[in-house]
Amino acid sequence: MINHIWGLLSNPGREWRNIDREKESITNLYARHVLLMALIPVVSAFIGTTQIGWHLGGEAYKVAVPTAAALGIVFYILMLIGVAIMGNVIHWMSDSFASRPSRSRCIIFAGYVATPLFIAGIALLYPKAWLLLIVGIIALAYSARLLYVGMPAFLRIPVNEGLTISGGTLAIGVLVLELLLALTVALWGLGFNDYAVSWSLFR
Fold first, then answer.
1. From CA 55, how far away is CA 192, in angstroms rounded?
2. Any coiled-coil ranges, and where (predicted)?
3. How many CA atoms within 13 Å lie on the side-chain side of 173?
4. Which domain, by its residues, includes 139?
5. Residue 59 lies in a domain
6. How far apart are CA 137 and CA 94, in angstroms?
7. Is 31 inside a domain boundary?
8. Which DSSP state fits 155?
9. Which has the higher per-residue pLDDT, 18 or 90?
10. Is 199 a domain residue?
11. In DSSP terms, which residues pair with 61 in a beta bridge?
12. Is the pLDDT of residue 186 over 90?
């Protein structure tokens, strides 16, 4: 797994070919990559929100540990589901092409494309809006690069066709990301309220 991470970041074209030769299954993808990588933003968010707190409007709002743990489980599950959803989106968008890859292959592709976004979750150790925005944009841009390079190298979709799918997939991915961010704000808002209630009870 670690070799794939470094390879995707340093030389994505070659690494996609290496991944292709492994012929792994969705089960192996999740067991060796997604389940572990998705822990990065979850653990980082748990530490950042309980020890440092969200920085909103100059103030830091900490979340109670039980609430942060519950939210962490929810977002962990959402990320695992999100990979499968994006894989299915890629499979659906490739429907009109003769070289259409299998659904399994598309989900595996989506799992590795999400690698920069998982790594970017480290920024949640210091959950400040401007930092998360900058890191998120950089991670999204690199995921777009992995998407574009991986289309011909892993999915066997020609570059000209891959550009169309890459653009569409990225657009849908951004919408999904925005939805998750909205959910994050809403649920963490509940976390703030929970913290405020807990604090008022012990004052």
1. 12
2. none
3. 27
4. 1-194
5. yes
6. 26
7. yes
8. S
9. 18
10. no
11. 54
12. no
Q: What is the pLDDT of residue 15?
A: 94
Indicate the SS3 state at residue 156: coil
| DSSP 8-state secondary structure symbol assigned to residue 24 | -
User: Contact, 129 vs 58, CB < 8 A?
Assistant: no
Residue 134 counted as domain residue: yes
Between the alpha carbon of residue 104 and those of residues 12, 24, 25, 85, 179, the distances in Å are 20, 10, 7, 12, 25
Non-local CB neighbours of 152 within 8 Å, separated by 6+ positions: 158, 159, 162
Give phi and psi for 184, each to the nearest 5: -60, -50
**Is pLDDT above 50 for 50?**
yes
Rg, Å, the chain Cα set = 18
Beta bridge partners of residue 23, listed in sequence order: none
User: pLDDT-based confidence at 29, cuts 50/70/90?
Assistant: very high
Distances (CA, A) of 96 to 108, 138, 153, 178, 197: 20, 31, 19, 27, 54
Return the residue matching tokens 């690494």: 15
Q: How many domains does the chain have?
A: 1
- Both tokens of 13, joined, read 């074209």
| Residue corresponding to tokens 């998407």 | 147
The rounded distance, in Å, linking the Cα atoms of 1 and 142 is: 18
Predicted TM-score of the model (pTM): 0.82
What is the maximum alpha-carbon separation in the chain?
Answer: 67
